[in-house]
Design goal:
heterodimer; A: mainly alpha; Cytochrome C Oxidase, Chain A; two-stranded antiparallel ribbon; 1% strand; B: 114 residues; mainly alpha; 2 domains; flat; Cyt_c_oxidase_su4_prok (chain B); Cytochrome c oxidase subunit 4B (chain B); transmembrane (chain B); transmembrane helix (chain B)
Chain lengths: 627, 114
């Protein structure tokens, strides 16, 4: 019995996960970490909604409300939606393109640990003197004057987790370009892989402006850099530009993979190939490109002048065109299909009208004169929650049901899934639809309370009830996930209608993914094989030795060094904490020492021999291997 | 033999001649490009020394700088080399990045004044 098939102790399993470079295990870790932060940020949202339930409420204080709304936005975007989408990208991209891992497995692990420790650092602010309280956009004119260390936590935490995101983004680009199986041309790639690549390219181009902005903010806060201080010759609006040059593409970084996930779910359960595949690819690229040309539409009321506002308004409306192409392609994929309304399909069907509603209000705000009326009102809150919850969260929940068997070889309960969908979906519309009207009635966003007698009381109460329903929906989903532990193994292609390579792999997936690299024969290659009566994909190579990467603890050590150094940097401006400089030096020494170790010590991975592969397969699938 | 040992293969005379010729061509190209770059630098210094209007000098030196960057990337950093793996993809991503960054500067300098 070789070491590959031996049972491991609990400690060994934990150590295996901490040091792993396997994209599937990292995907599970992203899923768990993302869910944790999603739950925290959701809880913050519930506290805010309870505060706003009735006028003149004093459930939370004004200062704590500011912390809640800042941490809700920051966490949901950077630390919940991003890692949850990375979970799906990590799990699915190598499987969809027929690769045995990502291009840089070590960097994959480093990306996760940087993200995770940056996120933990940011959340420790709650227990260490107060969380950031200047909104998720942290406009410099406000954040520079925020007392305490809240904003420093924001700057340092996002800097660390942003580095992790950037590393992962580069990794996906390289993986998709260089590691596709034979026959997998660009125009045969599953659409989720396409959107993962475009989204990663957006990460590559959008995160550097954020990094620079955060660095300037760091200098302003800690060394009196005056980049954003207008009284010292700085310019406070530059932060807004830098933030939104990053921030607008960030929206597409999140929503494009969500589109990709629905582009997998809809053809599967319509049992028809995706309508207009090439136009979908084109629309994805176009949305990604135009996403960089519209950042100033977040700043119409800053006073850019009519020329700038007009140009950015037109550019923004132009994004509606490729997005509309996508919506029509999804509808035409469903049209005439043999539709199965499973839970993932239910989420997809709910997504289309919800997301379109968010898109329509987006085009309304793109009209600069109207935006002057809508700016900083609840209309904006309603709009972006329709886009993010209606577009991204439905994609995440639907895909959790859809891809659960790929992750864990178990199915989620369909009945409970449908109940979850309806509770969550009705709660979502109840929460946010009415906020459009609150905005039109003049309720400003980011206020911790309001006076009675303005006609807002009942609408706010309804919105809070909806938020509680969403909370119940999330709890039901978590219960469903926990129940699946006791479920039966799902096996290969459990939906019966899988189209792409990831469904062709026998379950549980061996750590090397593919015993033999598959030969891709067209778009939806597994569907093609099934149509021809085959029970296996065509292979591109005989069974042979497989080269795999070694596990490594270095990514954790590098990230831990950054985590420690961040505390040193945080307390460095305080006169009464002279020890902070030593913490900073120790942290950076750990990081650079670990990087030096990585550079000087050659790690070529290992070869998994043919005999080992056969033994593992016999252990996983029983005598006779998988046939 | 482990897979990381370097195999030693004797070159044939024809291969040797071919490589020698190829390397000579390559070297000539590198030297020519290097000379062009020195010359461009000389022009830049010359313009500053000659004391032209700064509205001429600034854009012209920026233009020369752009040319230098392209020469540097394609000649000395082997982007033009067909043997560079995924050279076209690398070039494509770089130019897209440069284009996007350029639009930011253009927007800041033309339609946004603060």
């Amino acid at each position: 019995m070789s070491s590959y098939t031996q049972k491991k102790s609990f400690g060994a399993i934990v150590w295996d996960y901490i040091t792993t470079v396997d994209h599937k295990k990292l995907a599970i870790m992203y899923l768990l970490a993302g869910t944790l932060f999603f739950a925290i940020a959701g809880f913050e949202a519930l506290l805010m909604r309870i505060q706003l339930m009735k006028p003149n409420n004093d459930f939370v204080s004004a200062g704590f409300f500011n912390e809640l709304l800042t941490m809700h936005g920051t966490t949901m975007l950077f630390l919940a939606a991003t890692p949850l989408l990375f979970a799906f990208m990590n799990m699915l991209v190598p499987l969809q393109i027929g690769a045995r891992d990502v291009a840089f497995p070590f960097l994959n692990s480093l990306g996760f640990w940087l993200f995770f420790l940056g996120a933990v650092f940011l959340h420790l602010s709650f227990f260490m003197g107060g969380a950031p309280d200047a909104g998720w956009t942290s406009y410099a004119s406000l954040s520079l004057y925020s007392p305490g260390h809240g904003i420093d936590f924001y700057v340092l935490g996002l800097q660390i987790s942003g580095a992790g995101t950037l590393i992962s983004g580069i990794n996906f680009i390289v993986t998709i370009i260089t590691m596709r199986a034979p026959g997998m041309t660009f125009m045969r790639m599953p659409l989720f892989t396409w959107t993962a690549m475009i989204s990663s390219a957006l990460i590559l181009f959008a995160f550097p402006p954020l990094t620079i902005g955060l660095l300037m903010m760091l200098f302003d806060r800690m060394f009196g850099g005056n980049f954003f201080d207008h009284t010292m010759g700085g310019n406070t609006v530059i932060w807004e530009h830098l933030f939104w040059i990053f921030g607008h593409p960030e929206v597409y970084i999140l929503v494009l993979p969500a589109f990709g996930l629905f582009s997998e779910i809809i053809p599967t359960f319509s049992r028809k190939r995706l309508f207009g595949y090439s136009s979908m690819v084109f629309a994805t690229i176009l949305i990604g490109f135009l996403g960089f040309m519209v950042w100033a539409h977040h700043m119409f009321t800053t006073g850019l002048g009519p020329t700038a506002n007009a140009i950015f308004a037109v550019a923004t409306m132009a994004i509606g065109v490729p997005t509309g192409m996508k919506v029509f392609n999804w509808i035409l994929t469903i049209w005439g299909g043999s539709i199965k309304v499973t839970t993932p399909m239910l989420y997809a069907l709910g997504f289309i009208p919800s997301f379109v509603a968010g898109g329509v209000t987006g085009v309304m705000q793109a009209a600069a004169p109207l935006d002057y009326q809508l700016h900083d009102s609840y209309f904006i809150v309603a709009h972006f929650h329709y886009v993010i919850v209606g577009g991204i969260v439905t994609a995440l929940f639907g895909s959790a049901h859809f891809y659960w068997p790929i992750f864990f070889n178990r199915m989620l309960n369909e009945t409970l899934g449908k109940i979850t969908f309806w509770v969550f979906f009705i709660g979502f519309h109840l929460t946010f639809f009415i906020q459009h009207f609150l905005g039109l009635m003049g309720m400003p966003r980011r206020v911790f309370t309001y006076m009675e007698g303005q006609g807002w009381d009942n609408f706010n109460l309804i919105s809070t009830i909806g938020a509680l329903m969403m909370g119940v929906g999330v709890i039901l989903l978590v219960i469903n996930c926990l129940l699946s532990i006791k479920g039966e193994p799902a096996g290969r292609d459990p939906w019966g209608d899988g189209r792409t390579l990831e469904w062709s792999i026998p379950q549980p997936i061996p750590f090397y993914n593919f015993r033999q690299t598959p030969l891709v024969r067209g778009l939806d290659t597994w569907w093609i094989e099934k149509q021809e009566g085959n029970t296996e994909v065509t292979f591109a190579e005989p069974v042979g030795d497989v080269h795999m990467p070694n596990n490594s603890a270095i990514p954790v050590v590098i990230s831990l060094g950054m985590f420690i150094a961040a505390f040193g940097a945080l307390y460095n401006p305080d006169a009464d904490k002279p020890w902070s400089i030593y913490i900073l030096i120790i942290g950076l020494a750990i990081t650079f020492g670990a990087m030096l170790t990585r550079s000087l010590k050659d790690d070529h991975g290992f070869h998994l021999h043919k005999e080992d592969i056969l033994e593992i397969e016999e252990h996983l699938y029983g005598k006779g291997g998988n046939k | 033999m482990s897979s990381h040992d370097t195999p030693i293969v004797a070159k044939s005379q024809a291969q040797y001649e071919y490589d020698r010729h190829h390397n000579a061509l390559h070297m000539r190209k590198q030297v020519v490009n290097f000379a062009i770059m020195i010359f461009l630098t000389f022009i830049a210094f010359g313009m500053a020394a000659a004391g032209f209007s700064k509205y001429l000098i600034f854009p012209f030196i920026l233009l020369l700088a752009g040319v230098q960057v392209v020469l540097q990337l394609y000649s000395f950093m082997h982007l033009e080399d067909k043997k560079t793996h995924f050279g076209e993809v690398i070039g494509f991503f770089m130019w897209v990045g440069i284009f996007i960054a350029f639009t930011f500067f253009l927007a800041f300098l033309t339609i946004i004044w603060w």
